[in-house]
Amino acid sequence: MLLRSATLAKWGFSHGFSTRKGGVSPPPYDTCDFAMLRDPEALRENLARFGQRVGFDPARLYQATQVHGAAVLEAGGDAASARAVEADAVVASAPGDAAAVRVADCVPVLVADPATGRVAAIHAGWKGVVGRVVEAGLRSLGGGAERVAAIGPCIGSCCFEVSTEVGRAIEAAAGAPGVRAPDHAPGKCKVDLRAAVRAQLVALGLDDANVEDVPPAEGCTRCEAEWFYSFRRDGDASGRLLAAIVAGRNVDPSGR
């Protein structure tokens, strides 16, 4: 099963957020795991199925080695070689090139500029939020207020518990007091990472109405084990979800 953003589709951008269904990965990663260093044959088939549904050639799918930083990979050249580059945002410009990130609780963000057709995929865990990877990705993408974005499946505020120190750092980076709940235990608080990312997108010039939650904001990868992988829930037995977007607008505005 694939999740899509009505906002990105409206502007003609092929894209998708994977769930854990519809692939060939064996247990405990069943069935649609996109971890890069686990099962090459299953990964190849999962990418082929995902690419067919989204609308891109897997040979033109650009990913990076994610390290919870703020570096940006500009798509170009051999996509397979690009996977060795350490980055947490990928920007694609050439029509048909796809940018993607992998997540298992962290926030996947897909951004598109309807004026240029350029796209970005951003991986934002709490370290990325504090390190301003969203800002780095949007700076490389370029464009202005006309940009549109979708925030994909991630851990919810119901389950994302961190130290008070980390919570304050996220709150400061987001510039939005509401992302951190009051301490519920000594030195512990819960944080809404999705809201933090939205606040950063809006502060960087996106219209709040052009930022869509996919699925709706109440969704949580840790809670919804049937649909999503979660590292906080499953540890090393967790698979990885994929979020991808293709550069260049489609003639068909539905995104199909």
Characteristics:
256 residues, alpha+beta, CNF1/YfiH-like putative cysteine hydrolases, six-stranded mixed sheet, five-stranded mixed sheet, 8 helices, 20% strand, globular, disordered C terminus
Short summary:
The protein has 8 helices and 13 strands. By secondary structure, it is of the alpha+beta class.
Biggest β-sheet strands, sense, barrel: 6 strands, mixed
Number of strands: 13
Number of helices: 8
Shape: globular
From the alpha-carbon coordinates, what is the Rg to the nearest angstrom? 17 Å
Distance between the termini: 14 Å
Major sheet: arrangement of strands: 4-5-8-7-9-12
CATH names the topology as: CNF1/YfiH-like putative cysteine hydrolases
The CATH homologous superfamily: CNF1/YfiH-like putative cysteine hydrolases
Q: Provide the structure class.
A: alpha+beta
How much of the residues is beta strand, in percent?
A: 15-25%
Strand and helix order: EHEHEEHEEEEHHEEHEHEHE
Provide the fold topology:
Layout: E1 2-3, H1 6-10, E2 15-18, H2 40-54, E3 61-62, E4 72-74, H3 79-82, E5 89-92, E6 98-103, E7 107-112, E8 119-124, H4 126-131, H5 133-141, E9 148-151, E10 161-163, H6 164-174, E11 188-190, H7 193-203, E12 211-213, H8 231-234, E13 241-246
Parallel strand pairs: 3-6, 4-5, 9-12
Antiparallel strand pairs: 1-2, 2-13, 5-8, 6-13, 7-8, 7-9, 10-11
Question: Would you mind describing this structure in some detail?
Answer:
This protein has 256 residues and is an alpha+beta fold. The protein has one domain (2-246): CNF1/YfiH-like putative cysteine hydrolases (4-Layer Sandwich). 25% of the residues lie in helices and 20% in strands. It contains 8 helices and 13 strands. It has helices spanning 6-10, 40-54, 79-82, 126-131, 133-141, 164-174, 193-203, 231-234; strands at residues 2-3, 15-18, 61-62, 72-74, 89-92, 98-103, 107-112, 119-124, 148-151, 161-163, 188-190, 211-213, 241-246. The strands form 3 sheets. The protein has a 6-stranded mixed sheet. Strands 1-2-13-6-3 form a 5-stranded mixed sheet. A hairpin with a 6-residue loop joins β7 (107-112) and β8.
